[in-house]
Amino acid sequence: MRDSFAERGRERPQSKREYLEAFDREWALIHDGRGSEAGLKRVGSPERKPVCEDVALKSLRHGLFLVADGMGSSHGWLASREAARSAYEVLGEDLDKGIDNLKQEAAGDRQKLLEQVNVLVASRMAAAIVQAESRLKALSARLVGEPAKTTLSMAKLIEVSVRGEPSLRRLVFANVGDSRIYVQLGGGRLRQISRDDSLLQWHVDRGELTPAQAREIDQAENPLELPQQLRAYAAQRGGITNTVGNGRAVDDLSVSYIDLQPGDRLLIVSDGVSDQLLESE
């Protein structure tokens, strides 16, 4: 039976309240986890924001996991929901059917199948970004204020089983912005596998910082305790260089994969978590 979320989502309620209520009802049908909670208006205040700008998806049925963190006080809540909606529509049931077709055509050649799966999923992840950007561009043209933008971290888990060979679980993932994807392999430490679209990473790419220095800045509890030559970069550690909604997110999109074993864990978080907790925590 085809998912009905995509079809029902075509008709957008007119008011913000109606949109949020409809989205929450629809999302509850496909999300195997708790709903997102609105963050605090400011540090130390018990008062929360009126709307949560983050959207998370854990779809065990489709092996699809994502976090979208809306940006800006005006329309971030809308950007994250439309990006997450686009990702689900493109990377859910339709992609599963495409993968099943590849499995049938592989004729027992696991290596060929894995290569074809990588190409297919990467192309669909790019297509999800393009679809999300198209929607956000159309919406932003009718909105007052800054354009609707969001981060988007997404991962697709595919199980590949070929007769005579052990089953393999491949996680294909991509990231736009500064939300992050981590894995815990074999009960070890969490390890970030996504690449930040951040000003710190930009400085690394230019050779101005080493990856170790960028990580030291990122994980510093007190930037004033950093070595003198690194303090100037600390103020930029929250800056990002790419978002869904800027019209060029797919240009710099990098899709990667990692093979997992039973018991390995996946964690996807927005900067609301990674900025507040050290990796050691």
What's the helical proportion of residues? 25-40%
* Main sheet specs: 6 strands, antiparallel
Q: Number of helical runs?
A: 9
Shape: globular
Weakly predicted, low-confidence segments: 1-10
N-end to C-end Cα span: 42 Å
The helix/strand class is alpha+beta
Spatial extent as radius of gyration? 20 Å
Structural account:
The longest helix is centred in the middle third of the chain and has 31 residues, at 110-140. The N and C termini lie far apart (42 Å). The chain is of the alpha+beta class and 281 residues long. Residues 1-10 have low confidence and may be disordered. Helices cover 37% and strands 19% of the residues. It is built from nine helices and nine strands. The radius of gyration is 20 Å and the shape is globular. The strands form two sheets. Strands 1, 2, 3, 4, 5 and 8 form a six-stranded antiparallel beta sheet that branches. A three-stranded antiparallel beta sheet has the order 7-6-9.
Record the SSE blueprint.
Blueprint: H1 5-8, H2 16-28, E1 54-59, E2 64-71, H3 76-91, H4 93-105, H5 110-140, E3 149-150, E4 152-160, E5 168-176, E6 180-184, E7 190-192, H6 199-205, H7 211-218, H8 228-234, E8 255-260, E9 265-269, H9 271-274
Antiparallel strand pairs: 1-2, 2-3, 2-4, 4-5, 5-8, 6-7, 6-9
Quick gist of this model?
The protein has 281 residues and is of the alpha+beta class.
List keywords for this structure.
alpha+beta; 6-stranded antiparallel sheet; globular; disordered N terminus; 3-stranded antiparallel sheet; 9 helices; 281 residues
